[in-house]
Amino acid sequence: MPGATHAKWATCVVAVALAATACGGGGASGVVSSSWGDPPNPLEPSNTNEVQGGKVLDMLFRGLKRYDSKTGEAEDMLAEKIDTTDAQNFTVTIKDGWTFSNGEKVTAKSFVDAWNYGAHLKNNQRNAYFFGYIEGYDKVHPEKGKATAETLSGLRVKDDRTFTVKLTQKFSTWPKTLGYAAFAPLPRAFFDDHDAWLAKPVGNGPYTVESYVKGSQMSMRKWEQYPGPDKARNDGVDLKVYTDNNTAYTDLTAGNLDLVDDVPASQLKNVRTDLGDRYINTPAGIIQTLAFPFYDDRWKAKGVEKVRRGLSMAINRQQITDTIFQKTRIPAKDWTSPVLKGEGGFDDTLCGEACEFDAAEAKKLVAEGGGIPGGRLKITYNADTGSHKEWVDAVCNSINNALGKDKACTGNPVGTFADYRNQITGRKMTGPFRAGWQMDYPLTQNFLQPLYYTNASSNDGKWSSKEFDRLTDEANAESDVAKALAKFRDAERVVRDEMAAIPLWYQNGSAGYSERISNVALNPFSVPVYNEIKVN
Q1: What count of Cα atoms within 13 Å lies in the side-chain half-sphere of residue 112?
Q2: Cα 315 to Cα 317: distance, rounded to the nearest angstrom
Q3: What is the per-residue DSSP string for 368-435?
Q4: Do 530 and 59 form a contact (C-beta atoms < 8 A)?
Q5: For residue 177, what is the DSSP state?
């Protein structure tokens, strides 16, 4: 996200996709320069549900919980304790001594006001759905019509450090979700002068926003008075906008950039030679899928689930991940992620034959299902990064070969990610489209409910199943972890049987960095642990 003012950059012309080439060196003294993409939405915590904006929120805010940068486990941050006797009514006590960077004290009201804002229909927040389990959500955010309440009835401020939460049903793992940015606290400044806050967001994390020039750069600087235990070990981070990650990689190898956290597929053959030990390839909670537009009657017609299953079996995942991604991807076996491990809900047997390459069976199933709707498959993707075209072309080649038709499948590029997302949210897709999910928190529920629950926040294809919804609700209500995971697996089997989305591969975090910095790592969300990076 954007805008440098340190002396070294003061006279530097920073252009989109050429962010650092007008100046030598990776960044100002003590400041890390990192590749980045402009987020499509304002940086409100409850309105940011994509990776680029999430990087900033991770530096700018600290919530009740924080996910361990190595294990992903939810640990207390601002929460002193979260008590419950029934997994439905919770009492939250926050730690004393926390402030926002403008000096305002972080109180229980800071959380309650932020959550009420995020949930209310009039504020049109993309993450409103995450507050859906709190009592009163149906009044502040009804499915139809206007809101009939201003605040969530399930939230109550008891005193400066205590508030209570009443959920609409039992949700035993609900406290573990509270490290997600949507649940961050907000200062009064957010409400008193909203436009000013959006121009220069104020949070309570280890960094502050020094400046932001959209389309160019966001400059984050270390907050010296930060009260938390995870203080920044550098002077700041300059997030530089690139519209092509190949250009970012070139700048990295030329010494004009410190960090690239998405090494393009076209560079993976060279990256070990170029960077040696300064290349990171580590498992992450990310899955790539092909989603379908179930609002198009042709794709939800009876029998078309056979077509979707056949298309899944027509994709040679192993060949594509080996040749194009150089083993930085792992063929998908379910709809979650291996980082959850078996005890967390990952199951490498769940998809079974439906995720195995079988050209003959694929051709048979597509024919039995009535053929590809419209006669030709067009896979839509955003073309403003360096790798999507390559794998989409490879997927189409695999499908074409399996079906014995040269042009059964083609890629359908959209110029920018913003345009691509606008077409998706505008329900303009007519065939499968690229979908990726980076976990918000390390729970099986997070890989399933936001994507496949009826009208969920990231259910872009608008798939709906009463059976899936019922099983998900039952899983959330189950206090026994093993029983809850069993219910989630049952729900996931519904996704499999309907092939609500085709799982492609699990994505590793892939990053490269310059000799100028050290102590670089990616967390289980594949986001750099910026506050730990040292400038040599």
Answers
A1: 24
A2: 6
A3: HTTSSTTSSEEEEEE-SSSSHHHHHHHHHHHHHHHHT-TTSEEEEEES-HHHHHHHHHTT---S-EEE
A4: yes
A5: G
Place of tokens 């966001």: 218
What does the DSSP assignment read for 144-164?
A: SS--S-SS-TTEEEEETTEEE
The residue among 492, 533, 489 whose CA lies nearest residue 514 is: 533
Residue-wise pLDDT for 360-391, tens only, equals 999 999 999 999 999 999 999 998 765 799 99
Report CA 13 to chain centroid distance, whole Å: 31
Q: Tell me the sheet residues that pair with 378.
A: 410
Closest CA to 449 of 487, 505, 481: 487
Rounded to 5°, the CA angle 197-202-204 comes to 155
Q: Tokens standing for 514?
A: 């310059």
What pairing do the DSSP bridges indicate for beta strands 409-414 and 279-291? unpaired
- Are residues 178 and 90 in contact, defined by beta-carbon separation less than 8 angstroms? no
Question: What are the two backbone dihedrals, phi and then psi, of residue 237, each rounded to the nearest 5 degrees?
Answer: -135, 125
How many Å from the N-terminal Cα to the C-terminal Cα in the chain?
24
What sign has the CA pseudo-torsion 436, 237, 443, 78? negative
Q: Which residues pair with 239 in a beta bridge?
A: 34, 218
Q: Per-residue pLDDT tens for 187-234?
A: 999 999 999 999 999 999 999 999 999 999 999 999 999 999 999 999
- Number of C-beta neighbours around residue 183 at 10 A: 23
pLDDT for position 448:
96
List all residues 6 or more positions away from 8 whose beta carbon is below 8 Å from its beta carbon: 23, 25, 27, 28, 29
Handedness of CA 188, 191, 192, 194 (dihedral sign): positive
pTM to 2 decimals? 0.81
**Residue 442: closest CA among 9, 15, 72:** 72
Q: From start to end of 264-327, where are the E strands? A: 279-291
Tell me the C-alpha distance between 184 and 112, whole Å. Answer: 10
User: What is the greatest pairwise CA distance in the chain?
Assistant: 68
Whats the size of the chain, residue-wise?
A: 536
The count of C-alpha atoms lying within 13 angstroms of the C-alpha of 536, restricted to the half-sphere facing its C-beta, is 10
**CA-to-CA distance for 166 and 155, rounded, in angstroms?**
7
